[in-house]
Amino acid sequence: MKLWGGRFTKEENQLVHNFNESLSFDQKFYRQDIQGSMAHVKMLAATGIISEEDRDSILKGLESILSDIESGKLEFTNEHEDIHSFVEANLIERIGDAGKRLHTGRSRNDQVALDMKLYTRDEIKEIDALVKELLQVLHNIMKENTDTFMPGFTHLQKAQPVTLAHHIGAYFEMFKRDRGRLHDIYERMNYCPLGSGALAGTTYPLDRDMTAELLGFYGPTLNSMDSVSDRDYLIELLSAMSTIMMHLSRFSEEIIIWNTNEYRFVEIDDAYSTGSSIMPQKKNPDIAELVRGKSGRVYGALMSMLTTMKGIPLAYNKDMQEDKEFTFDAIDTVKGCLALFTGMVKTMTFRKDIMEASAKNGFTNATDAADYLVGKGVPFRDAHGIVGQLVLFCIDKNIALDDMTLDEFKAISPVFEEDIYEAISLKTCVEKRVTIGAPGMEAMKKVIEINEEYLKNN
């Protein structure tokens, strides 16, 4: 059934139908479409636009359609153009003329705007829950590793010693910001477009506040033209999901590096690894690599949406039908990546001994050796040069700073005393960093307490 057939005298060309239809993908929000119709028909009855008898008949019909779709008894068929015509045609078939009154006071333009908002709102909640689950896993790792020493890096070069808790804490902050972005999008988008009609509202005395309240919105949208043509919330969501994927990809890259034979910082659980068809020794970080790769897929959806919207005049245009497929795909991709990544990190084993040895052998305590000399009255620039000589000596001898004898220290600078060993121990190097946000034990405990409170209340 075509909802617009009365104006036309010829049948639609099949190729045109195939090109124009959206049921093949917008069937995904059948539940939201029916939910919106139920709220709409309740409002129509409350304002006296339709009778209570018709309301009850329509509601009963919609409930039966929803039940039959979810049980598999009612299947989507290709003669219908979209989810709206599918539901309405089935409703009329089931309850007769009363079903024809459902569409009073609305257009497919405000209907699809509503459906997409309802669907997006539900998905934001699900994505947020998955990000929170990942944050809980990261929080647990942090609590257990405040004294697990490892090298911190800049330019992929060992720089200064940190702890695993501190390193993981950086990702905690990233994903916490991601949740903030999702919350902001939800708050900004949660206004109801239903009642905007095709673009200029309607002559029927609709109670848009009632519809908005029934559907859990903060209120109705305030401009009918913007209501049917707004896809900002999708662009914002795709942008936020792209940022989530960027964070997952960065983390995946580190796990891939840490998993190499050269680093061996982590052991990925067998359930999240694969082997080689030809090389029996291989254990590949495929989940991390796929997450890293799928970031481009989500970025592509964002660019597609921006490109689709950039030249569209007010109000609704058919171009906007392109908002669905890649948004649905991006949402499914992000949810799948979050779930798998969380499982991988949760089951991963950290090689604490190798991490600590790597920190020692990478001269990550060189800055602290310079600070030691400054504490003894040596100007920092001179101290920097002296420690540079120490590093060259150690490289030549293939040893760490900690392995030098006191005589070897004194040969380069007589300022060094026995207390140099305590000053450049990894524990001292980390524990001296006590400002909030630093890796020292006390600073990390404060951050972990803040994170604990955040997870409890958000």
Helix content: 55-70%
What do we call the CATH topology of the largest domain? Fumarase C, Chain A, domain 2
- From the N-terminal CA to the C-terminal CA, the straight-line distance is 46 Å
Order of helices and strands: HHHHHHEEHHHHEHHEHHHHHHH
Total helices: the number is 19
CATH C-level of the largest domain: Mainly Alpha
Number of strands: 4
Largest sheet, order of strands side by side?
1-2
Give me the CATH superfamily of the largest domain: Fumarase/aspartase (Central domain)
- Mean pLDDT over all positions: 93
- Main structural class: mainly alpha
Strand composition percent? under 5%
What's the architecture of the largest domain, going by CATH? Up-down Bundle
* Total discrete domains: 3
User: Globular, elongated, flat, extended or rod-shaped: what is the shape?
Assistant: elongated
Low-pLDDT stretches are none
Q: How would a crystallographer describe the biggest sheet? A: 2 strands, antiparallel
Taking all Cα atoms into account, the compactness measure Rg is: 31 Å
